[in-house]
Amino acid sequence: MKKITAQSCRAPSHFFDHTSGISSNQSFYRRPFAHHFASAMMVLIAASIATKAHAQQQADETKKESTEQTQKVEVHATKPIQGTNEKKSLTGEELSKMPGSGGDPLKAMQTLPGIAINNDGDSGAAVRGARHSDNAYYVDFLPVGYLFHMGGFVSVFNADLIRRFDLYSAAWSPQYGDVIGGVFDASLRNPRTDRIGGKIRTGVLDSSVLLEGPLTNNTSFFLSARRSVIDLFVKEVKDEKAGTSFTFPSYSDVQGRFLWNINSKNRLRFDLSTAQDRVKFNLKKDSMDVQHDPILLGESSESSSFNNMAVVLESDLGAKTSHQVALGQMVTHQKERIGSAGAYATTSTFKYLREQITTNINDNHQLTAGVDLNSNTLGIDVNIKNPRCTEFAPNCDATSADYSRTKRSQRDNSAAAYFNDRWSLAPQWTLTGGLRATHDDYLKETVLDPRLGLEYSYSPQTVFFVGAGRHHQEPSQEQSLSDIGNPHLKSIRSNQVAFGVTQNLEQGWSWRAELYNKEFDHFVISDPLLNYRNGASGSAHGLEVLVKKEMAYGLSGFVSLSVSKSKRHNDFTGENFTFGYDQPVIANAVLQYKASEKLQYGARWSYHSGHPDTPIIGTRTDVDGRIRPIYGTLNSERMPAYHRLDLRVDYKYSDKLSYYAELINAYARKNTGRYEYSADYKTRKPEAQMPMFPSIGLQYKF
C-alpha cells in the first residue's frame, strides 16, 4: 500500500483519523490527543514564541548574497510556465514577516484565500471544500512526509531556508500528484557560496543550528538541525481537576543539501529531510473523556517520523530544453496506543522516481512531460478497537466497537505519466491542455485526468482565465486494506472549474478575483458488512478576491476575501449536510509599513465564520449503563464567529542582529474551539483557543 505518502506526497492521515474538523465528529482517538496536546502548548506558547528567532529577511539576504557569492558556475534550466489560473504565491520575506506567525513561513501560508482552518493549533488546511488529508505537499520537486510537528504549532522546515511558497487550489497542471484538495509547493533557497556561516537559535520551545557555505568552487551545502527543549525541563504536567496528566511533546527535525554545479549545464543535489514527534498523556477515571468513553482510561502515546533522502539531477539540454530527474526513498513510521483500546503500528517504505522534461518549441509554445514511478511497502500491526469513523456519521464510539486485528506486509506499485502543452495561439490567447494517467496495481485502477485552460490577455496588465480539470485520489490506507478495510474501493473523483481575472497595477499593486466550483464523488462511508464502501458525494463553490501590494518601502501587504459554500451528500441515506470545514466568509488583512531599512511595523486581522458542529439534543442509556448522546442533524450548528488581531514590530540592529516583538490576539478575543459536555451531556461549556500574549525574539547571524 502507499496510502501514507506514495501516491503523490499526500499528507499522511493517522490510522483512525477521519476528522471533519468538528469535535463531535472527530475520530474517537484523535480527539483526546489533539485536545490535551493543545492544552500543553497553551501553557508555554507565549514563552516559546518569545524566545524563538524569526526568519531572516529573505529578500535582503538574497540581494546581499547575490553580490557576495563567488560561485563560478550556474545552471539556468527552462522551467514549466504555470497558467495564470493555477497558483497563489508568497515570497519567503512576505511569509517570515507575517504578524502572528512567530516567523514560521509555513504557518503564515494559512492566510491565503481558499484555506480554511478550524483551530489556532490546527495544521490541517482544508482547501476549497476538501479535507486536510486531501492535499499534496512538495518541497523542490520532492515529496515530504508532513509539514508540521504535533498539533501544527511549528513547521518541520527551518524558516531561514524557505524561499517561496505556492498554493494550487483548483484544476492545476498534471505534473502535480493525485489529490482532490490542493497542492502546497515550497521552494528552498540554495546554500550560500561566499563563506562558511550560519545561525544558532535557542528558546523555551526548541533550539536549532544552521550551518552552510562552500566546500569547493563548485560545491556548497547547508545542514539544519532542531530539537525541542521543553520536554527536557518539564517532565510532566498534571491537571487534577480535569483528571489528566501529560508530558510535553518532543520533536526534532533535520534538513540538509549538498549542491554540486558539475558544469554550466548540469547540477546535482543531494537532499535530506527528517522529522520525529512523540507525545504521551494519561487519563484518569474522573476525566471527562473517560466518563464519556471508558476505553480511554489509562496511558496513551503516539509517535511519528519520516526520513526522506533523494538525489536530483537538473540539466540544460540546449537553449530551450531542461530535464529534471529525482530518485529517492522516504520511510515513515507511526505508532499509537490508546488507553485500553489497543495499539497499532505502521511502517511505510516509499521508493520513488520522478522525471520531467520541459522544452520550448518556440517563444509561444512549451511542452512539459514526465513520469512518476512509485513502490511502497507497508508493514502494519493492528490490534485496536476500530469504530470506523467517517465524516458522514456523528456518533463515533470506540468503547462499544469491535476490535480490528491484522499483522501483515504489503507492497503497492503505481505509475503515472503526464504531459502539458501550453500554446499561445494568438498574441492575446493562450491555450493549455494536459493529461495525467495513473495506474495502481493494488486497487487495480487506471485513471485518466484531463486538464484544460484558456487565458485572454485583455492588455499586458490584465488577464482573464478559465481552467477545468478532473482529479482523483485513493482512499486512505485503513479504508482499503484487506482484513480491516475494503480492498475493492474505488478512488475519490473530483471535477473542478475556475474562472477569474488578474490585473497588475502601478507601484507594485495587483488584484485577483476568482470563481470556482468543485464536484466530488466516491467519498468513502462506513458499512457494517464491507467495513467501508464508496457511497457519498459533495460540492464546493465560491468567490475569492485578493488585493496585494508588493513589499517595498512604505505600505505593503494584502487583503483577501473568500465567500463559499461546501456540502456533503450521503448517496445511500439521501442525507445532505454542511461540510465540517465550511466557513462561508473568510477574510484576512495583512498590512506592513517599512519605515526605514531597519524598522518595520505590521498587523494582521483574521476573520472567519464559525465552523460547523453537530449538537447533542438528548441522551440515551446503553445496556451497559453508560449515558450516550443523541445527536441532532449533522453539522447543523455553528461555533461563534472567529476573529483575531496580531501586531508586530521588526528592528534590524545590524546585518547580524535583529529583533522583533509581537502581540498575539491583541484585543483578547475568546474564540471558541470546541464545546466540552458534562458527564450526562446536559450542559456544555466553550473552550477558548489562543489567548492574548506578547512575544519578543532575536536572531544572530554569523
Describe this structure in words.
This protein is mainly beta and 702 residues long. The protein is 8% helix and 54% strand. It has 7 helices and 37 strands. It has a 24-stranded antiparallel β-sheet that branches. A 5-stranded mixed β-sheet has the order 1-6-7-4-5. A two-stranded antiparallel ribbon has the order 2-3. The longest helix is centred in the first third of the chain and has 22 residues, at 30-51.
Characteristic key phrases:
single chain, 702 residues, mainly beta, 24-stranded antiparallel β-sheet, five-stranded mixed β-sheet, globular, disordered N terminus
Task: Label the structural class.
Answer: mainly beta
Q: Quote the beta fraction.
A: over 45%
Number of helices: 7
Q: Could you tell me the mean pLDDT?
A: 84
Spatial shape: globular
Quick synopsis:
The chain has 702 residues and is mainly beta.
Give the secondary structure arrangement, pairings included.
Layout: H1 30-51, H2 58-68, E1 87-91, H3 92-96, H4 105-108, E2 115-116, E3 126-127, E4 136-139, E5 142-143, E6 162-168, E7 183-188, E8 197-202, E9 206-214, E10 219-228, H5 230-233, E11 237-239, E12 244-263, E13 266-283, H6 288-292, E14 298-316, E15 321-338, E16 342-362, E17 365-385, E18 403-426, E19 429-440, E20 445-457, E21 462-473, H7 477-480, E22 492-504, E23 509-527, E24 531-549, E25 554-570, E26 576-578, E27 585-594, E28 599-608, E29 612-613, E30 616-621, E31 627-631, E32 637-638, E33 642-652, E34 657-664, E35 672-677, E36 684-688, E37 693-700
Parallel strand pairs: 4-7
Antiparallel strand pairs: 1-6, 2-3, 4-5, 6-7, 8-9, 9-10, 10-12, 11-12, 12-13, 13-14, 14-15, 15-16, 16-17, 17-18, 18-19, 19-20, 20-21, 21-22, 22-23, 23-24, 24-25, 25-26, 25-27, 27-28, 28-33, 29-32, 30-31, 33-34, 34-37, 35-36
